Amino acid sequence: MEVVYEDNHIIIVNKQSGEIVQGDKTGDRPLSDLVKDYIKDRYAKPGAVFLGVVHRLDRPVSGLVVFARTSKALTRLNKMFAEGEVHKTYWAIVASRDVSRKEVGERRKENGDEWQTLEHWLVRNEKQNKSYAYDRERPNAKKAILKYRTIGHSDNYTLLEVQLMTGRHHQIRCQLAAMGCPIKGDLKYGAPRSNPDGSISLLSHRVEFIHPVSKETITAVAPLPKDALWQAIAPK
């Protein structure tokens, strides 16, 4: 387990692909338990350790996860996540060399960088644990918006930086696949083959927010996965 940031109220951890954030029906030991053990050992805390889960990452995804260490921080962070006050940036390696031909939505420039916006209506299938993207509204669909830009290339892959405007089930995975650019290794959403370690090439790269108690700006960045493609394709 790798701690990226911690103080008395919050702790930010770099999750490895394959880890689950919170306990589920698999019975596998979750990351939240590992963080509790870390806090208990590091600070010699007697009794049970409080830890609040405020958001999750899919099991095959790696990168930053924010936990609350106090009930005050948990209440405030829950509200901040719900109101879009926590800004998360993802990096995704997609199985396409030429993303420009697959762009959907409007373009706009911010600070000289060109971003594309994707808008879909997503319908979640609970039994399949999968979401489906549609161009128009339909029953039980939720609107999904993200923006992305290209920040790296290899011979066969493109590295995208993604910012979520909404928070839907499998949103990045589903929307990128819907424009013909499935994330590398993501068999569920159309990738031709899996990654050797079972991961998908999606990284929760950066998180920024105003600290719920101190009101200082907190910025954390995840280290790159120890994978040759990630090391080669990421901006230096």
Q: Can you give a write-up of this model?
A:
- This protein has 4 helices and 12 strands; from the N terminus they run ββαββαββββββαββα.
- The protein starts with a strand and ends with a helix.
- With 236 residues, it is an alpha+beta fold.
- β9 and β10 form a beta hairpin.
- Strands 1, 2, 3, 4, 5, 6, 7, 8, 9, 10, 11 and 12 form a 12-stranded mixed beta sheet that branches.
What can be said about this structure in brief?
This protein is an alpha+beta fold and 236 residues long.
Shape: globular
How many distinct beta strands? 12
Instruction: Let me know the largest β-sheet.
Output: 12 strands, mixed
How many individual helices? 4
Unreliable runs:
101-112
Elements, N to C (H/E): EEHEEHEEEEEEHEEH
Helix content: 10-25%
Overall pLDDT, averaged?
91
Mind telling me the C-alpha Rg?
Answer: 18 Å
How many angstroms separate the termini? 25 Å
Structural class: alpha+beta
Strand content: 35-45%
Chart the SSEs and their pairings.
Blueprint: E1 2-6, E2 10-15, H1 31-42, E3 52-53, E4 62-68, H2 71-82, E5 87-94, E6 107-110, E7 113-125, E8 130-134, E9 142-153, E10 158-164, H3 171-178, E11 202-210, E12 217-221, H4 228-233
Highlighted features:
single chain, 236 residues, alpha+beta, 12-stranded mixed sheet, 4 helices, 35% strand
